[in-house]
Structures are given as C-alpha cells and as structure tokens.
Amino acid sequence: MSLNCATQLDEDDGEECYALTDASRLLVKDNPLSVTPFLLALLDPTLSQPWLHLSTWFQNDDRTPFETANGMALWEYAGHNPRFNNLFNDAMTSDARLVTSAVMEKCKGVFERLESLVDVGECTVFDLPHVVGDLEGSENVKYVGGDMFEAVPSADAVLLKCILHDWNDEECVKILGRCKEAITSKGSKKGKVIIIDMMVENHKGDEESTATQLCFDMLMMTLVTGREEVKRLG
C-alpha cells in the first residue's frame, strides 16, 4: 500500500489487519538497524533548503546549492555548527549499521585475513577532527583525526564507505592516491582498498531502484561536489 503499512492476515484469527512493511520497520526506533536518524537528517532544513536554491545556484559561481543556501560548504558548516554536526554524524552512523549488515552478509570474505583496517570517513576509524574528537577507542579500535587529502594511516586495507560519491573526479583520484600510499607504506603489495558506494545502473530493469539511484545522484550534486558513479572502477 505504501512505505508505512500493508494489509495481511492476522496469525491468530486469520482476520485482515494492518502491518509494517519491510521499509517502515527500518523507521522503528528500537530496531537495531533503524535509519530514523538518517531520515531526520534528510528532512532537516539544513539539508532540505538547498533543493529550493537550485535556480539561484545555476546563476552564480557557488560550488553547490548547499553553499548557496548556507553560505559555506557542507563539511565546513558541520565544523562550525555542533547541532548539525551531531545530527549528520548520527545519520551516517545509522546508515553504516544497515549497510555493514548487508556487506557482512554478502561480502564477508573481503575482510578475511586482514590484521588492520582503516575506515575513512587493530581497526582505525579515520575522520575529520571535529567528527572523532570526543570518541574513545578500545583495544581493537582507535579513532584518528586527520584529512584524507593529506594522508591516510597505514593499514592492510582502507575502507571507503560512501566517501567517493561526495567528491568530484579529481578529488577522488587524490583520495585514492593517499589510500594507495597507506596500503603500500610498509612495502606490502597485498593491500586493498574496499569501496562501498552506490552505482547508477539498471541491469535488472527495476525502476524503483533506478529512481533511488538517480535521487541520490541529485542529492550529491545538491549537497556536495560529487555524484554516484555510472560505471564500475577498474
């Protein structure tokens, strides 16, 4: 019927009743894979207002509609606005839980035999200082503040989850260059860069999936300088 509900037969008495759909279950707060924070961020005026500035953006020299609406780039804005920074980080955390569960179910072998992993954006979580500044690590996880355009910590593998789609092609090449340095800094030739991102493709003829892909492609154009890739790397 919709994103929120569907009809089904009650298991006890067989009568027709309303029930949550698979999609709406992801909005239930006590669901471990809840993406409610992600939805709340998308609906926040900070991220929704840029869509209303597209026509103005076409007529100026700003890099993104987000910059037109908020006076600065998204990453700079997050560094100056604690409320939005927390909102955005919570959104990315909820998205990461959902994506990671799918990746570990379908692609677990990619992570086997790795002794160290740097997650950009022992296991090292590498992100901007204002993102990881208040976080505490553990025996197997540590948080490192820095800039992926300058250097990425050395590791057996570097994970880029929903990172490259935030940046233009030239910036992506620079990020990948830093990743190459990170996985070869100890002389190893067996390192790997693991990229998790959306592809704009329609091999299965699924119109809803294609619409979602194109929506995120537009979202990247509106909020940052990136896009969803239309062809596979390599």
From TrEMBL:
What is the superkingdom listed in this entry's lineage? Answer: Eukaryota
Task: Offer one Pfam family short name for this entry.
Answer: Methyltransf_2
Keywords, sorted A to Z: Methyltransferase, S-adenosyl-L-methionine, Transferase
> PROSITE patterns of this UniProt entry?
SAM_OMT_II
Domain O-methyltransferase C-terminal span(s) in chain numbering: 51-121, 122-229
Task: Return the InterPro entries for the record.
Answer: COMT-like, COMT_C, SAM-dependent_MTases_sf
What molecular function terms (GO) are annotated for this protein? O-methyltransferase activity
The transmembrane segments are: none
Q: What GO biological process terms are annotated to this protein in UniProt?
A: methylation
Decide whether keyword S-adenosyl-L-methionine is in the record: yes
> Sorted alphabetically, which PANTHER family does this protein's record hold?
O-METHYLTRANSFERASE (PTHR11746)
Supply the name of the protein.
O-methyltransferase C-terminal domain-containing protein
